[in-house]
Amino acid sequence: MSKTLIRGAKVLGGEPQDVLIDGAVVEAVGRNLSAEGAEVVEADGKVLLPGLVDLHTHLREPGREDSETVLTGTRAAASGGYTNVFAMANTFPVADTAGVVEQVWRLGQESGYCDVQPIGAVTVGLEGAKLAELGAMHESAAGVTVFSDDGKCVHDAVIMRRALEYVKAFGGVVAQHAQEPRLTEGAQMNEGVVSAELGLGGWPAVAEESIVARDVLLAEHVGSRVHICHLSTAGSVEIVRWAKSRGIDVTAEVTPHHLLLTDELVRSYDPVFKVNPPLRTERDVMALREALADGTIDIVATDHAPHPHEDKDCEWAAAAMGMVGLETALSVVQATMVDTGLLDWAGVADRMSFKPAQIGQATGHGRPVSAGEPANLTLVDAAYRGQVDPAGFASRSRNTPYEGRELPGRVTHTWLRGKATLVDGKLT
Amino acid sequence: MQRHLISAADLTRDDAVLILDTAEEMARVADRPIKKLPTLRGRTVVNLFFEDSTRTRISFEAAEKRLSADVINFTAKGSSVSKGESLKDTAQTLEAMGVDAVVIRHSASGAPYRLATSGWIDAAVVNAGDGTHQHPTQALLDAFTMRRRLVGRDAGLGKDLDGRRITLVGDILHSRVARSNVDLLHTLGAEVTLVAPPTLLPVGVETWPCEVSYDLDSTLPKSDAVMLLRVQRERMNAAFFPTEREYSRRYGLDGDRMAKMPDHAIVMHPGPMVRGMEITAEVADSDRCTVVEQVTNGVSIRMAVLYLLLGGNEPAVSHARPTEEK
């Protein structure tokens, strides 16, 4: 078995230590470990994290291979320090049957860059009318535990109630894309001062908050757990905080872009800033950061949403919603949470690896960096500063809102069960 | 002046007054037996209309022709756009044919801004109305009409609308005319009041440089000009107001309400009017109503804008040398 010695790495941001990988497992963590028979990686004070886990990725395959495939998406994931991604169900065909989730799962296995855990649709065709075969997807080889109609809201209260109840039978969780459809007809951006000026259809905060409020109450009523996707408003934070204080089993995620960007950017009418839920206000951004720091929001999830160039190189209303995020997520979290003093690296490991793995019941991921654990690891050069250049992305798509923006930190190495998928910033 | 005209908010007070003054010069051309200037001879202007609009397109076309520009009309219907061609490709195709300016009307807010700022084309861009965003030449022609009526045709030269009280009534939420007018009238020193049912005002309107009222009757006596905006009947179905009748009872301008306005005050409408909805025939056909004047003034304003954007430093009318080529 091959051995790798990572020398002088700040494990979860702590004092520098050596980490020895033997085969697929962490053999030892300590000082002055022997390099005998091992390939040495000089970490030189870089931060070592457990491999990141993304609970919310759009890999687009099957159906939209022009924007991303499982292979290109997992390469992007490895490049961003991820060892496990959860692939959203809004593919073509929709991942609402055992057949489709098994296909995605198998493609992930073949890619070798990152484990892919398919998410199953809650309703047939994401149409919100009829439950998909949740049990069959769970029992398939893909072993689906997370269900979501993401991109669309499970808006019908009865369907949502039934889904929450039904998945209890096998310990599943419903991840809700909280968007009241009637309140967001023709919605193009956050409803507020900027939308009023720009004449773009408003996506009001209340359209998210009303669904979040309803769903935590439903989860409480039926004694199930619910996960809120890409929470984006200060009001949603308050509701989730209240629900948790009441003992309701709710978890929530925030995207990197909602931690950094605001709707002021929409003034450029550049669709690279068009995303759903939309970029909100400075006040929301600050509330989200605070909530991620205090644990009200459990995790960071990318909502990596690749789109081909032509779907963004057009007028705002015609453009697709979404941004790629796998390759910039950690840098944005460092900029907004670590460099601001809101979270230390152990906190980052918790929000980007331990907790998402827990919510998604990922096996072998989100484990501590200690002897006997699977060697899913990410090495980060936190001192690095550089401009985002989409030309260097491994993703097939380039729709990043950060082009040309200076961001801190750079993932230099990623190991998936001991096998290096990224070395010195280059995919293997 | 900037290279493009995208939003009324981009105009400084001096820019706006220059356009109004230039439009007065252009208006004199209309009084001549031959209503034509050689200013834009050899320049090509395309009217790129992705949204149905007869009056605005014809107004621009008349303005372009009076300035001797070569005019290309492009409407989306029956063109490659309906076959799925993108705005970018359409614009680049037209520019490749040697277009100097693009006058664009588009249903998507921000489309003219994208056209002007994305590096797709080099031509000057004039916004002829985009979605529910802006319609700057409409605001300019409205301000021109107000200045003529409220300040005076000659007395108004070089002046703005300082202290004039302007009331806009109707569907503010969906109106690019309202947004453009609020921006421009504020820049010109006027005091603007918006009157509408709360459902037809955008969230965020409280940050606009104007007053907001739900009550038309109390606003009328304090108005030097009342501009009515068209209210589409379809809005009723989306629950913006209960019925047409209730809307006109509360927000429509009829003869009785017009009588509450000061004697000098005018009634304006950007057209097309919905008689019986926001305005009664009695008001629409009265001497105080400037609807037809606004149309005439629209041509002068658009001539002024095109001249200032494309004519460069050449003098316009007063010193025009029609025999000399540029």
Indicate the topology.
The complex is a heterodimer of chains A (428) and B (326).
Chain A: E1 3-11, E2 16-22, E3 25-30, E4 38-42, E5 47-50, E6 52-57, H1 70-79, E7 82-87, H2 98-111, E8 115-118, H3 134-139, E9 146-147, H4 157-166, E10 173-176, E11 189-190, H5 193-198, E12 202-203, H6 205-222, E13 226-228, H7 234-245, E14 250-254, H8 256-260, H9 282-294, E15 299-300, H10 329-338, H11 345-360, E16 377-387, E17 406-416, E18 419-423, E19 426-427
Parallel strand pairs in A: 1-4, 1-5, 6-7, 7-8, 9-10, 10-13, 11-12, 13-14, 14-15
Antiparallel strand pairs in A: 1-2, 2-3, 5-16, 16-17, 17-18, 18-19
Helix pairs in contact in A: 1-2, 4-6, 6-7, 7-9
Chain B: H1 13-30, E1 44-49, H2 55-66, E2 70-75, H3 87-96, E3 101-106, H4 111-117, E4 124-130, H5 136-151, E5 165-169, H6 176-187, E6 191-195, E7 211-213, H7 216-219, E8 225-228, H8 234-237, H9 244-251, H10 255-258, E9 266-268, H11 281-284, H12 291-310
Parallel strand pairs in B: 1-2, 1-3, 3-4, 5-6, 5-8, 6-7, 8-9
Helix pairs in contact in B: 1-5, 1-12, 2-12, 5-6, 5-12
Describe the structure.
The complex is a heterodimer of chains A (428) and B (326). Chain A has helices at residues 70-79, 98-111, 134-139, 157-166, 193-198, 205-222, 234-245, 256-260, 282-294, 329-338, 345-360, and strands at 3-11, 16-22, 25-30, 38-42, 47-50, 52-57, 82-87, 115-118, 146-147, 173-176, 189-190, 202-203, 226-228, 250-254, 299-300, 377-387, 406-416, 419-423, 426-427. By secondary structure, chain A is of the alpha/beta class. Chain A folds into two domains: 3-47 and 373-427, Urease, subunit C, domain 1 (Roll); 52-360, Metal-dependent hydrolases (TIM Barrel, Alpha-Beta Barrel). In chain A, strand 13, helix 7 (234-245) and strand 14 form a beta-alpha-beta unit. In chain A, helix 4 crosses helix 6, helix 6 (205-222) packs parallel to helix 7 and helix 7 (234-245) packs parallel to helix 9. In chain A, 60% of the residues are buried. With 326 residues, chain B is α/β, with parallel strands linked by helices. Chain B has two domains: 8-134 and 295-310, Rossmann fold (3-Layer(aba) Sandwich); 136-291, 3-Layer(aba) Sandwich (Rossmann fold). Chain B contains twelve helices and nine strands. In chain B, the strands form two sheets. In chain B, strands 7-6-5-8-9 form a five-stranded parallel sheet, with helices on one face. In chain B, helix 6 links the parallel strand 5 and strand 6. In chain B, helix 1 packs across helix 5 (136-151). The model of chain B is unreliable at 318-326 (pLDDT under 50). The A-B interface holds A 188, 191-200, 202, 204, 268-270, 310, 313-318 and B 86-88, 106-111, 113-114, 117-118, 130-134, 176, 179, 202-205, 207-208.
